[in-house]
Design a protein that fits this description.
274 residues; mainly beta; 2 domains; 5-stranded antiparallel beta sheet; 4-stranded mixed beta sheet
Amino acid sequence: MIHLDTLLSEYYGKEIRQGNSFKVKGVQVSLRPVGSGFDTGLSTTVQFAYCPTTKHTRRAWNHVFKQWVAQKKLAGRVGKMLNNDDFETTYSTTYTGYSRTSTLNMGGLNDGDADKVCIYGSSNETTNVLTLEDMYESLNPVDTPSTFSWNGNVIKPLKATSRFPEERMFAASANASTAVDAVDWPAVYLSGSLAQSDMVMLPEPANVLCGHLEVDIWTFPDDTLAQLEDTAEILISIWVESFSPLVYPKKARSVKPRRKSTARRKSSRRKSKR
């Protein structure tokens, strides 16, 4: 799991809040051979999954964020003594062990079992999990499909079965290989031939909600009877162009300018009769 807010905080040397939409424009994956026994080589494919920042995901985040802020104020856990106490979620119910995950007392302040806030998954009071997906879907159900008035049969099914979007994915790959000449097998003659991937530019920027990137990695080939599997380090570079807060900005008050009254004064002088 990659948390862009943590990496950017380390890079800039200051607190970068998780409550942002991080715009990712490109990624790069490369392999660095480890040890002196690197012969045939390795290939890898890395898949990145994320929750996109949309109108619905932003609303869901703000809904839970407001509840979290309200409970912090009621408990008196605000002020200068609690700096950098950021509202942080985890990607899904699979990663509830993430130590920085914020909690919410769904049963009120007297609720002894605080629920960890996740983005994807199903809320569960037994395991103390609250998800943005489950909460938003329950508060904003999809519309019913169009039906015939005389028998109730569906005319056309709904195009969207949920408002909260599914996770999006993009991938990158790399390989570090050698040229093999096996004329006198099993004797193998190797020559250095290294191939690395360039920065993969996404067709359009990925707006990553809260900076969570779930990473799945596949490497091959495996061990064989004649060849041992090589060892390499996988290096991942991510191009984050910008990030913007998820909190809605406060609406500016529109003050109408006062108009000065220019009433004409009537002259008190009477016209003299001739």
